[in-house]
Amino acid sequence: MIQFHDVYKAFGTQEVLRGTEFTVEEGKSLVIMGPSGSGKSVILKHLIGLLRPDRGSIRIMGKDISQLDRDGLQQLRRDMGYLFQHSALINWLTVFDNIALPLRETTSMSENDIEERVMHVLGLVQLEEARIKLPGAISGGMQKRVGLARALVTKPSIILYDEPEAGLDPEMSTSVSHMLRRLREEHGMTSVTVTHSVNCALTVADTLAVFEHGKFLISGPPTEVLNSDNKRVREFLGAPID
Amino acid sequence: MLAPPIEIAGYTLNLAFGVVRRVTQLPRRLRSTFNQMHLTGVKSLIVVLFVNFFIGMILALQLGYELARYGQQEAVGFAVAVAMVREMAPIMTAVVLAASVASAMAAELGTMRVQEEITALDVMSVDVIGYLVFPRVIAMTLMAPALTLLASVAGILGGALIAHAQLGLDFSGYMRNVYDSLSDTSLFGLPRSLYASLVKATIFGFTVAVVGCASGLMAKNGASGVGNGTRSAVRNSIILIIVLNFFLGKLIYT
Predict the structure, then answer these.
(1) What residue ranges of chain A are covered by domains with CATH 3.40.50.300?
(2) Do the domain assignments include residue B90?
(3) Percent of chain B, pLDDT > 90?
(4) ∠ CA A36-A42-A48, rounded to 5°
(5) Best to test chain A binding among B14, B118, B121, B123 (most A CBs inside 10 Å)
(6) CATH number of A1-79+158-242
């Protein structure tokens, strides 16, 4: 369970989060949409402990992450996955080694067990045949799926997606969105997704929220949000305005 | 907010201590350390030998002419060997390593930083110092003295070439002078000059690698940040080599 309570964050004089609040129940999926530069990725960076709030509390699986020391934070992160907007793969490691990296570095698993686990997640993202390729030799869509496999390989309970469809063509974007949906249904992971894609949001979300000026304009089931009377929400989602 | 130079110095020192604290990780980092030794040592070898061969020739040329004015040109082997082994080989090898390897480390790690790859490692709870910095620093620390030793030989041979061609000295006489110069007071079983050379080279190697890695890891603001990191890696390494060389020389020879 994720609880983001009354969180404030400013960079210099620019207030990015202004009393931001939300809760994601275990196994549920929250999708956050909003204009570029509104601070959506800042929320994700707070959730993974890369940023600390100026005020407020962030509780993940019962632990207030702003109170955790480095070891505590690392322990918590081992139960979380993060898909970066640009995949952030290590360019001198093969696809297989990129995915195996967190297992080799943070667990005492044997190479046989690591290979079995990596091949399993490569199967989930349908990339078994790309395992010996370097990131530079595969397409952006494939890199995104490798990033997804790397986020999944440690079997996290919580997974954070930063614009999973960014830079992908419409067909690949739809394919990745369905993959995220399927993974959540099959593995029951709690997820928070930041996206600009309404299609991705509708495919993945249990709860859809629209974020602007440091606060949520609206939050609720996707159909409810899409049919909202809020003019700004309708403008942003591209819904017809009465 | 700390002033940038103090922040950089603090970060670099912290990184240096971080590497020392992880020395027990060496067995599990052997493969990546050997890869880095190949990049640091083997790929820099030709440049190091070339530069130091010419340094030896320059020393022999200038010292030879001056010594000849007093009829002491036979002592050129002595002077070249002392200058090369004690000072020039460790300094010039470290400068070449700073310009070629530390700059590459800064560029590589800087690019990883701005492309969020370092953040990704952090998020995966991967120990960034252990995984990326430790193999690079250990490799450079081990390869720098080895390269310096070869650089000394190259410089002495460069000097021999000029001693023969310009000053008319025979090779065996030149080498006798070289041996004499290196048979000074023994320290830990090594001639003092050689000991000084290896100690300096080891410390320079460690310093240059830590500065290169720190400059890369501190990079921000995209491509220009990587450029700044690379530039500061080379500049700060060379400044530290010169300053450390003075204090190490003073420590060893007093």
Answers:
(1) 1-79+158-242
(2) yes
(3) 74
(4) 140
(5) B123
(6) 3.40.50.300
B211 has pLDDT over 60? yes
CB A89 to CB B117 under 8 A? Answer: yes
Residue B25 resides in a domain: no
Q: What is the pTM of this model?
A: 0.88
Cβ–Cβ below 8 Å for A50 and B123: yes
pLDDT at B145 over 50: yes
B119 with A101: Cβ contact below 8 A: no
B23 is a domain residue: no
User: B117: domain range?
Assistant: 4-14+30-247
Give chain B's domain count: 1
A118 contacts chain B (CB < 8 A): no
Q: Which residue has the tokens 């493969």?
A: B31
Contact indicator for B142, B37 with CB cutoff of 8 Å: yes
- Give this complex's ipTM: 0.87
Confirm if B56 and B76 have CB atoms less than 8 A apart.
no
Residue B144 resides in a domain: yes
Strands A80-83 and A215-220: unpaired
